[in-house]
Each structure stands twice: as structure tokens, then as C-alpha cells.
Amino acid sequence: MNPDSPHWVPSLAPGIRLYFDDQSRRWVVKAPQQVVFLDPLSLDVLRACDGDRSLMQIALYMDALEHRPGRAWLEVVSDVVRHFESRGMLRCRLASSVLALTGR
Asked: pTM here?
């Protein structure tokens, strides 16, 4: 992923599950040989990684949730996505609209 591009569209990688664990009473993202208990901010970012929204759209969504209005959300979202992508939990692709513009 190019973390500087707001046009990347993240989604959960195949085999990754995001769910509420009743036993621990926390949200979890589970991958082969990995379990991550999520903080509220990471949970909201991962929920927004639906394969349709770009990083910029997710940043606007986060601003609307009012975790901290006016925060540099694109940078925060990019950092969270980069972290989970490096762990193999997210995959990213370039937005279709950008691909159409570049002729790819």
C-alpha cells in the first residue's frame, strides 16, 4: 500500500474475522495464529474497511463519529490501516475511479 494515497480502499483479508467475543466482552479481530483485542478507534476504522470506502472516505466517517473532531483523520486512518495490513489482516486496492482515470 502507498500510505500517502487517500485513494486506497481497504477490506478485511480472506479468512479474517471481526467479532464481539462474549467471553472477554471485547471486540476482536482474528487471523490465523493471531488475535487482537481492539480499542474503540481501531474498531471503528476496521468496521469502515468494507472494501467500498477509500481511506479519505473512512477519514471523513471518523470525523463524523466525533472521537476527536478536527483531528488529522487521514493520517490516523492510514496508520491504523498500515498496521493491520502489515499483520496480514487487511488488504488494499486502488479505488476503481482512480484506475479508470489512469487507464489501468
From this structure: 0.85
Question: Residue 98 in contact with residue 7, Cβ under 8 Å?
Answer: yes
62 Cβ contact list (under 8 Å, min separation 6): 44, 45, 48, 71, 73, 76, 77
For residue range 51-76, list pLDDT tens digits in order. 999 999 999 999 888 767 667 899 99
What is the DSSP-derived secondary structure letter of residue 72?
-
Q: 18 φ, ψ to 5°?
A: -115, 120
Cβ atoms < 10 Å from Cβ of 57? 17
Specify the amino acid at residue 23.
Q
Residue labelled with grid coordinates 462474549: 22
The CATH code for residues 9-99 is 1.10.10.1150
Q: Read off the amino acid at residue 87.
A: R
Could you tell me where the DSSP H helices lie in 1-104?
A: 40-48, 55-65, 73-86, 96-102
Strand 17-21 relative to strand 8-12, pairing: unpaired
**Grid cell 480502499 — which residue?**
9
